[in-house]
Amino acid sequence: MNILFKALNDATRREILEMLHEKDLTAGEIADRFSMSFPSISHHLDLLKQAKLVTAEKEGQYVYYSLNTTVVDEIMKWFLQFKIKKK
Amino acid sequence: MNILFKALNDATRREILEMLHEKDLTAGEIADRFSMSFPSISHHLDLLKQAKLVTAEKEGQYVYYSLNTTVVDEIMKWFLQFKIKKK
DNA sequence: AAATTAATTAGACATTTGTCTAAATATTTA
DNA sequence: TAAATATTTAGACAAATGTCTAATTAATTT
To answer: Is B81 on the interface with A (CB under 8 A)?
Structure first.
């Protein structure tokens, strides 16, 4: 849970998730959409990968990133606990 | 959104939310359940308050903290976007 | 095989964060 | 009103975080 919330605690990383919801993208395509260095984006992608919010697949010299909604389910379950009525 | 994810990015603060889901508690009652100084807990409560995840109400010399589930709804809505199918 | 392109790794550095102790504020009790 | 109790504020400090440039690795093209 810790690494998940950590990964989500950054506007750039949340934007990346929203972009990947539209379609899969290479590291370069993602980086092009930000005014930030490639290595910085690479680092953000690494954190998202650690949290399993995204998966990476190498195709030739490119690396394609995809959203992993399984983890989104898990985190929503955590939030749902608070909607359960207590006496 | 920023301050919300920031507030959630700490195990102590998430535990406080879970405690407040059980019942409302004073700052002191919350602090007693952690092996951490009062001022540190007070600081965590402040962050949760800034994110509107909790509300505080003074009663005499005590301050009662309560969970605010309205914000939980909001954040769940953010996560739900990822469950909407894209072509 | 050398040059180009895509991406990551390494290391530096300023900023933010979580914790602490000490001090301050506010309320209640003796 | 002085002492006790509950909580917050202030300030210090180490650790974590986000960013950068330079260097490295891997794959493709000329």
So the answer is: yes
Partner-chain residue, chosen from B11, B75, B82, that has the shortest CB–CB distance to A79: B75
Angle at B47 between CA B20 and CA B39, to 5 degrees: 85
Kindly give the confidence (pLDDT) of every residue in chain A, 87 residues in length, as a single tens digit, with 9 standing for 90 and above. 899 999 999 999 999 999 999 999 999 999 999 999 999 999 999 999 999 999 999 999 999 999 999 999 999 999 999 999 876
The secondary structure of A33-44 as a DSSP string is TSSS-HHHHHHH
User: What is the pTM assigned to this prediction?
Assistant: 0.93
* CA angle centred on A37, ends A36 and A39, rounded to 5°: 130
C-beta pairs of B26-33 under 8 Å, 24+ apart in sequence: B26/B62, B26/B63, B26/B64, B26/B65, B27/B62, B27/B63, B27/B65, B28/B62, B30/B65
CA–CA min distance B41, chain A (Å): 19
Please tell me which of the candidates A2, A69, A75 has its beta carbon nearest to residue B11: A2
Structure tokens at B15: 């535990």
